[in-house]
Amino acid sequence: MSAVAAEGVWKFYGDYPALRDVILHAEPGACLALIGRNGAGKTTLLRIIGGFSKAGRGQVRIFGNDPRDTETRRRVGWIGHGISVYDELSALENLSLFGRLYNLPDPQKSAMEWLERTGLERVKDGLVREFSRGMRQRLAVARAFLHQPSVLLLDEPFTALDDRAIAVLQRLLREALAEGRTVVMSTHQLREALELATHVALLNRGKIAFHGARTPQMLADPGWVYAHYDEA
Amino acid sequence: MREKLIYGLGAIAAVLLARDLYSIFMQLPDEASQGMIYRIIFFHVPAAITAMLCAAVTCITSVTYLLTRNLKFDAISVAVTEVGLAFLAANLVTGSIWGRIIWGIWWTWDARLTSALVCWLLYAGYLMLRRAIEEPTARARISAVFNIFAFVDVPIVIFSIKWWRTQHPQPVFWGGGSIDPAMYLTAVLNLVALILLAVVLSLIRLRQEEVQREIDSIRRYAHAV
Amino acid sequence: MDFLRQTLVIARKDLRAELRTKEAINAALAFSIVILVLFSFAFDPGEQETVEMSGGLLWIVFAFAGTLVLNRSFAREVPNDCLDALVAAPISGAALFLGKALANFVLVIAVELVSLPVFGIFYNVHWTGQIWSLLLVLALGTWGLTVIGTIFSALTVNIRLRELMAPLLVYPMLIPALMSAMKLTMDLIAGKPLGGEDEVWLRLLVAFDVIFTALSLVLLETVLVG
Question: Among B133, B213, B217, B225, which would you mutate to test the A interface (most chain A Cβ atoms within 10 Å of its Cβ)?
Answer without folding.
Answer: B217
